[in-house]
Amino acid sequence: MAGKHNHKKIEKKWQKIWENKGIYKIKDKVRGKKNFYHLVMFPYPSGNLHIGDWYNFAPADVFARFKKMNGFNVLSPIGFDAFGLPAENAAIKRGIHPKDWTYQNIKTMAKQLESMGNMYDWSRKIITADPQYYKWTQWMFLQLYKKGLVYRKKAPANWCPKCHTVLANEQVIDGKCERCDTQVVQREIEQWLFKITDYAERLLKDLDGLDWPEKTKIMQRNWIGKSEGSIIKFGVECQMLNIKCDIEVFTTRLDTIFGCTYLVVAPEHSIIKNLESRVQNLGEVENYIKQAKKKSDLQRTDLAKEKTGVELKGIKAINPFSAKGGNSEKIPVYVADYVLGHYGAGAVMAVPAHDERDFEFAQKYNLPIKESISGGDVSKNAFTQDGILTNSGQFIGMTSKKAREEMVKWLKENKFGDKKINYKLRDWLVSRQRYWGTPIPIVYCDKCGIIPVLEKDLPIKLPDIKNYLPTEKGKSPLAHSEKFINTKCPKCKGKAKRETDTMDTFVCSSWYYLRYADSKNNKKFADAKKIKNWLPVDMYIGGAEHSVLHLLYARFFTKVLYDLKYLNFKEPFSALRHQGIILGSDGQKMSKSKGNIIDPDGLVKQFGSDCVRMHLCFMGQYDQGGPWNPTGILGVKRFLDRVWELATNNKRQATSVKKPNIERLFHQTIKKVTEDIEKFQFNTAISSLMILLNEMEKNESQLSVANCQLFVKLLSPFAPHLT
RNA sequence: GCCGAGGUGGCGAAAUUGGCAGACGCACUAGCUUUAGGAGCUAGCGCCGCAAGGCUUGUGGGUUCAAGUCCCACCCUCGGCACCA
Length: 723
What we know:
Distance between the termini: 8 Å
Number of helices: 24
Structural class: alpha+beta
Helix content: 25-40%
Radius of gyration: 31 Å
Shape: globular
């Protein structure tokens, strides 16, 4: 064994031995061992394994091996998130069929993954674009459908003009498409949605018990955006009135209601249509609404600096508190696009004295500013904090908090409103007008209407069509395929047509962690017993970019399946860790155009997989990332060569010479490495191993074979191929 | 604007129940060694200074025998949200 450390030969050798012996084929149960489900977020087949993928998978494998050495029966599976826009766009760009492109990439990437020497159980591999897999994605859709959690709606949707498809709200970043950076526009399309909002409260509450980064939990909480307030009915008065109606508003600051000097409704608000005949300046109003609708979401927020609106002339609202007091005060009603149609009641009571937005609007349109909470100077600025009520009838002198309680009581007693909780979370739009995705298992029958496909008819296979390019009209490419669309109605057996949209790829990844437990099952998405053996996931590792998307959707699916009694747990991922992002040596985000991409294959060739794995662990804090240092890896290379020298020295005496310092240092290092890996502090674990090696070399003559073997063992989660 | 994370040598970073700041590594310098090296070994390496000595954890205050660590104010960088009433 002595001689220079030849990583290429050794790594190949061990990888072959591992494979032949099948030591990473994990049994569902091993006597005397506890199961540990260790999972990395599966990659999408982009073409090549990126250094960022390595940074996710390599340190994660260190943790998995560590757990295994600690006596757990560790499942560490891998697969491919194969459907979706990124893969499809890349294929289209190269003029290759998405299927060919994807499966070709999977082949290369599987090979690259094997070169890492991770303890993956390849026998459980899943590919979400395989019919055996998406059969169950479709089955999931049907379960949600049965439970009333799927609905169809024609509504303005985020449309990416370049990808030719609708996007979920979560996929629109700064008004642009998450994938191609194109400005997203609003477009009216019929589409399918999942009622994730039904689960808002549970998605919020169940975060508390999770061992997740606090940051991620906060991001999810903010995304769900719970706010507690009240709903208030303002009476409406028109000239020549015989219509009696109300405008409902939502507020969290009921205590400020005596300062309300006008109402604002969103351009989408139904009151405008309903009272059309009473609006004296209808032309002006309609024109304003038209202008507002033209704006994209981005423009609506970009124009935040300058608020605009139009009064609905001829319509007045009556504050219920003043109405009851006898001298009902009539206040004007405006339509303005700073009020959102989809949140709360789509209308607000404007209190310029105590709300910055209303203040700005009131100043611009010369509306009265009436103080109702003391503590600020409302002639200069809106005073938005809580305080003591003034100018507020029977509530004068109360604190804001107390007033809110008393005023809700009053509202309820007088039937003018009630408490109300609102969430920012919106339903999950899952229709995609694209080829490369799971077909939605729905059929349209002239007689029976919209009918779900029967479970026994699954999977509805994605046809191999040549014309897979997205269309500008907003029709899925599947609409071209006569063979695909024409079918029989599952109910009346008459002629019917298939839904041609495919599902958002996040649907595929919302349940894949369950499939690994039983990836080849033909009868169920996974056997209940096998699920019980492994789930929930004990440690989940992946990028922070999924903080709200994938992680929220997966939690939603788990809860639905729990309610349907398929699962006995409510949360899929008990513990979660994120890796940081590795930047180019120039400190910039890696990209082909900047030419700063680090190629992991080249590094492995030059330094070996152990060295690359270890360097990634040594770079710094795992969740931090940072610029790639091109020379830093040399230190790890030297270290591994020195370990090799020490470990392969045949002349070493078998009997241990008791050297107290060394023995003590061994104990300290074992403790430190153990604690640090548990905490994902791989960098300091390695540094302690380096310190130990330095000491060992200084006392080389006194080292025993056992010392060296122990050292190699300590090192083995990081460098599993050594010796 | 709001929420979150962070700011320590030339570089990546250690160290926070307050106790010698800079472990470990990269780069660098000198010497040894090698036919040669971008290999190996030995030594040095926060900054200023010939030295004695002084200074040093984003900035400014404060608490303390003692502060990177605690308190107050502010600046900067990164990530997220963004008219959510």
